[in-house]
Amino acid sequence: MEALIFDYDGTLSPIDAPRERAFPSRELASVLEGLSKKFLLGVATSKDYWFVKERAPWARILGLVTGLEIVAGDYYLLAREVVERGRSEGLERLLHMYPWEKCVFVEEKRSLEKRLLGVSIDYRACGSEPEGLGSFLDEAEKSGLYVLSYRGSPFVDVYAARPDKSRVIDVARRLLGVGRVYYFGDSENDVPAFEKADVKVLVLHEYNRHMVRVLSFDYIVEFKDLHRWLMGVLLH
């Protein structure tokens, strides 16, 4: 069985869409539904289950919060580090120590059990880096949390355990019997998954032109053309 595993933001959904509008286009959603009859489809995203569940009904494996939580068929997995080292509680305490400006959107990423696995600090509406962000990130790193920033992007993520989307590929192969894996992504946090995939597909948009130099990709596709590429290459 072959699998197609997709990042979400910037790959299936526009990178700059507000949360309430962050859906695949109708054309892409239709193509994905068709592909689900031929391939095992999955999502590997920094978002949590509560965000993804209605946006990817065709997905048979969900890699959530950058691989810290995985739902695959009847299997449910949570990264051991989250539980053993109490980092979820540490992130919860740290998050509520900082009052953010009104222009900052703080997205809490929670597990199915509502455990805090990560937060995203989005300051696109601020125009510049908000006051206190540097201090918050310094404290996060001192507390053993994982900070992930993205070149040229006005947002940053903090995780309770080591983020690694390649866990989704490992689970798909070991538990679901998947063979060849196509991975579609757009940013630095996709690199571990790209490295384990058999076919690497970079999806380009206005914020990630530098990614073409990060790895050797099998295919490079513009975001607006992804549905046509999928139809031409995989649904022929």
TrEMBL record:
It comes from the Archaea. The lineage of its organism: Archaea, Thermoproteota, Thermoprotei, Desulfurococcales, Desulfurococcaceae. It comes from Thermogladius calderae (strain DSM 22663 / VKM B-2946 / 1633). Keywords: Hydrolase. One of its GO terms (molecular function) is hydrolase activity. This is HAD-superfamily hydrolase, subfamily IIB.
